[in-house]
Amino acid sequence: MRVLAINDISCVGKCSLTVALPIISASGVTCDILPTAILSTHTGGFSGYTFRDLSEDIPAILQHWKSLGLQYDFIISGYLGSISQIEMVKSIKKDFLKEGGTMVVDPVMGDNGILYAHFDQNFVNEMKGLCKIADVVVPNLTEACFLTDTPYSSLTEHSYTEILTKLRRLCPFPSVTGCDETAEVNGKTRVLSTVYYTDEKGAVRSYSTEKIEGAFHGAGDVYASALVGARARGIGMEKSVAIAAEFTKNSIKQTAADKTEARYGLNSESQMYAYLQALDKECRK
Ligand code: PXL
Questions:
Q1: Is residue 27 in contact with ligand 1, taking CB distance under 6 Å?
Q2: Which InterPro entries match (predicted)?
Q3: Residue among 45, 99, 106, 96 nearest 72 (CA)
Q4: Is 133 exposed, middle or buried (0-12, 13-18, 19+ CB in 10 A)?
């Protein structure tokens, strides 16, 4: 199994490729990388970061790969710094995804109801176009709202299924993370963090974990990488979502216990062994 991860390198702050590469590789498949930009840190919560756009280097990299005849079973795209990089990902899919391969798009654009620095409505519109060529999209709730023109401020627990139905007009297998819900657990009202997704048969499903209070940077990257790792190991959507959601929740839980600054990312390293055990258990069935 060969996976290509297209994303930036944020040198500090554990997101994008510094998360995708270790997690996807650890899952037991080859993970090649295409860096879209190099930043000293990510853009969420730091000021004064450097940002080198690598768009100019990419055509020669792709030319070389073509000469090697490289083809991928999975391609996952993440943070893209410009509309021209969105176009570039579309042509990479054409040239490098195997027939029957899986295109995964993480439409990295924002969180907590707002877009990250450098993004605007024009970029959102172009990202909708990229989602249309994907088999799987993994937005967080904020990104799902932007992709479906749903005002974030108007959200209720009843909106989630509707958002998923709208996302299915863009892509057959959307999976939306961070859908907060309340539920009665042992007679107490609890807040749950739920992933809404569609299974292989196209049915809307959900998977809930305990909600850990706070904003944790890089959680979307951990979830997307763990999901791709599980899918690349041949595990079905339903189990893959559960494994990725548990890995992410446990990483968040450990990060909260560590009391590190949220902008430095998740302690997913501590949960890697459990993730691999979950993959192995499923693959042995
Ligand atoms: O975690 C998403 C992400 C990836 N890459 C860069 C970012 C962000 C979010 O802030 O700034 C550069």
A1: no
A2: PM/HMP-P_kinase-1 (IPR013749), PyrdxlKinase (IPR004625), Ribokinase-like (IPR029056)
A3: 96
A4: middle
Which residue's alpha carbon is at the smallest distance from atom 8 of ligand 1?
Answer: 42
Long-range pairs of 86-89 with CB within 8 A, sequence gap ≥ 24:
86/123, 86/126, 86/127, 86/129, 86/130, 88/55, 88/58, 89/6, 89/130
Q: What is the pTM of this model?
A: 0.97
278: number of Cβ within 10 Å? 20
pLDDT at position 96: 98
Q: What spacing in Å lies between the alpha carbon of 189 and ligand 1's midpoint? A: 33
| Residue 186 burial class via C-beta count within 10 angstroms: exposed 0-12, middle 13-18, buried 19 and up | exposed
Q: Compute, in angstroms, the gap from residue 15 CA to the centroid of ligand 1.
A: 6
Sheet order of strands, 51-53 included? 51-53, 30-41, 2-12, 72-77, 97-105, 136-137, 173-185, 188-198, 204-210
For residue 273, list its beta bridge partners: none
Where the chain has pLDDT below 50, the residues are: none
Q: Residue with the nearest Cα to atom 12 of ligand 1?
A: 42
The pLDDT assigned to 285 comes to 85
**Rg of the chain taking only CA atoms, in angstroms:** 18
| CA 105 to chain CA mean position, Å | 7
**How far is Cα 238 from Cα 201, in angstroms, rounded to an integer?**
11
State how far the Cα of 127 lies from the Cα of 241, in Å rounded to an integer: 23
* Token output for 204: 């809307």
Place of tokens 């996952």: 76
CB of 231 shorter than 6 A to ligand 1? no
C-alpha 116: how far from chain center = 15
Question: Residues with Cβ < 8 Å from 91, sequence gap 6 or more?
Answer: none
